[in-house]
Design brief:
This protein is an alpha+beta fold. It has 2 domains: 172 residues, Sandwich (Immunoglobulin-like), CATH 2.60.40.680; 166 residues, Copper amine oxidase-like, N-terminal domain (Copper Amine Oxidase, Chain A, domain 1, 2-Layer Sandwich), CATH 3.30.457. The chain is built from 7 helices and 31 strands. Strand 19 and strand 20 form a beta hairpin.
């Protein structure tokens, strides 16, 4: 008997370790807002009567403390020139103007390093790194949005009104095959780059655009992204997974569960709405429920099939009703009302509600990886261990 007890105890310990490890995987950290891909533009101004113009390197949507770019150009069309004399020059400091970034806290000084200009080769290589003198929580890195930040100006002269054939130089680096990237002091990333020409050039082709091929996100990243705005519920189960976290649908009453009745799947309206950040109000006088989510306002009444979305009248084939002191509505109408995508797995009796723009894909890499963990987490044994009843 003692041997059996010891064996069961050992199995329980192993199970707890597995459960703990699994929970660490499925629980997603609070996801940061989706970041725009950092980008840069090389913008050429309208040439004057002598063909002289300014070409500016502008950084957008980036957190950076340094940037490096290398361009090639047709030297029979364009020359780099001294900004004062407008004569051809290969002295970088006479061709280029490097700008600092000023904030209320001070100035982020940028220094050019390893820069090279060659009219003979038709190449321009530039690199600038921050030497911070301002106090900032971000350290030497600065954050630039859509407003952009002009890092360099270059003096150029067109020998003829033709396409200068700008392109991004190749590198010998396998990670960065093109010489266009921005660093934030911790890492460097390939950068989208666009060459913008004056309208007067009337170029038949569009401006050259370089879009780096980014590495495929890791499975961990895919899982975290997939779990954001994803709500998973099991028929008959008082627990749900919301953004990767196991939660009780109604902590005060564990009889509040999704259920099937008359070939329809019903979900608790308040829990679904609040899981996606909606404000849910109940008026007991007229038994009216108001759900406000972003720019959507939904009004329903108990016992009435008619409801409104932003004042527009709609009708369900069954009316909302109260069970266990909670309002239940068919899942189809919850999706329609809150502008959400609903996925139903009949075999698993599983409902998954997501943002409309990112519906659940049962064949997706992240979805296939998440599902077994989610089902285990919502299973009776694990659920009851993770969500013990309040005394």
């Amino acid at each position: 008997m003692n041997k059996i007890i010891k064996r069961l105890s050992a199995l329980l310990v192993v199970a707890l370790i597995l459960i703990s490890a699994m929970c660490q995987v499925i629980f997603a950290e609070e996801a940061a807002p989706e970041a725009k891909m950092q980008r840069a533009e090389f913008i050429v101004s309208e040439p004057d009567e002598n063909g002289c113009a300014t070409a500016s390197l502008v950084i957008y949507d980036s957190k950076f403390s340094g940037a490096q770019f290398g361009f090639s150009f047709d030297n029979t069309v364009l020359q780099l020139v001294d900004r004062e004399t407008k004569e051809p020059s290969e002295e970088f400091n006479k061709i280029a103007t490097l700008y600092d970034y000023k904030t209320d806290a001070g100035v982020h000084d940028f220094k050019s390093v390893g820069c090279k200009a060659s009219n003979a080769e038709g190449t321009l290589k530039m690199a600038a790194y921050g030497m911070q003198s301002a106090v900032s929580d971000e350290g030497a890195a600065i954050t630039i949005g859509e407003e952009g930040f002009k890092l360099f100006d270059f003096s150029v002269k067109f020998l003829k009104n033709e396409d200068p054939c700008f392109d991004v130089l190749d590198t010998l680096d396998r990670v960065y095959p093109k010489d266009a990237f921005i660093g934030d002091g911790k890492s460097q990333k390939a950068t989208s780059l666009k060459f913008v020409f004056p309208e007067s050039f009337n170029l038949e082709k569009e401006a050259v655009v370089y879009e780096p091929v980014l590495p495929e996100p890791s499975l961990k990243v895919l899982r975290e992204e997939r779990l954001v705005d994803t709500l998973m519920l099991n028929i008959g189960n008082f627990a749900a997974i919301d953004d990767g976290y196991l939660k009780v649908i109604d902590d005060g009453n564990r009889e509040v569960v999704p259920f099937i009745e008359g070939d329809r799947t019903y979900l608790p309206l308040r829990f679904i709405g609040e899981a996606f950040g909606a404000q849910v109000n109940w008026n007991p006088d007229n038994q009216e429920i108001t759900v406000a989510l972003n720019d959507i306002v939904v009004v329903m009444n108990i016992g009435k099939a008619e409801y409104t979305i932003n004042g527009e009248k709609k009708e369900m084939d069954v009316a909302p009703f109260i069970r266990e002191d909670r309002t239940f509505v068919p899942v189809r109408y919850i999706g329609e009302a809150l502008d959400k995508a609903v996925y139903w797995d009949g075999a698993l009796r599983l409902v998954i509600v997501t943002a409309n723009e990112s519906p659940w894909n049962p064949e997706g890499k992240a979805e296939k990886d998440i599902l077994p963990d989610a089902l285990l987490l919502m299973s009776e044994l694990v659920r009851d261990m993770m969500l013990p009843k309040a005394e």
